[in-house]
Amino acid sequence: MTRSYEDRIQRVITYIHDHPDEDLSLDRLADIAAMSRFHWHRVFRALTQETCAQMVRRIRMHRASIALVKGDDSIEAIARAVGYPNVASFTRRFSEAYGHSPAAFRAAGQLCAPQPYLRTGDYPMYSVEIREVPARILSVLPHVGPYNDIGLAFEKFYGLCASRNLWANIGVSIGVYVDSPETVPETELRSFAGAEWKGQEVPEGTQRFDLVARRVAVLTYQGPYSGISAAYNSLFGNWLPTSGEEPADAPCYELYLNSPRDVSPEELLTEIHLPLA
Asked: What PROSITE patterns does this protein's entry cite (predicted)?
């Protein structure tokens, strides 16, 4: 793994440890890492096996556990020092983490300190190539909700195309995934289902989505859509840290090279496109 990504992870971990009472939102930690908000969460989770929120909570609770056992500050003061002005909220989180209330933990006087680790190389290997891709105009339907349910939006899109006989203007099927399932509630995830549009104005009832011409990293995944998360972990946990590349401030998107109507799930081919700076 190149020093760049290792240093970013370590910088963020140090910042969380040294500033437990400050703003430790995903956006703030992306700023500390100097990385695109679209992709920071994927890199972080792929390399640490935790989301940023999980690590923030764990380190805050660890700092609190030390203060409870080795110090004599009140529980209220300790809660504020680790970013919980509400004592009830702190007590609930601490009890979830350690199985005891802060008061009971202090009385027991025992410490435990699980440490973060980096996991690069532990994921299945996929080949990745860098391409210069042209600008594309997409005709899409928006989808809000679990990404696994985006198939309904694709069905609606192709039903619209069939009813209007638009096939001559339709290119490769594409899905754009805007939000992170690790940081956005499943019911609020935003995505777009559609295809490259080769006509003039996109069809009424659909939205235009522009993909700019740029360099992208392309991972080709073969298999059922339900297993594609392993390919994303490989892209962000294996390839990106050793590539010398920087992700652009733009979401990933997927090109579907064949259809579950025509081939078995094991034969499905999907290109994951990661925009590069």
From this structure: HTH_ARAC_FAMILY_1, HTH_ARAC_FAMILY_2
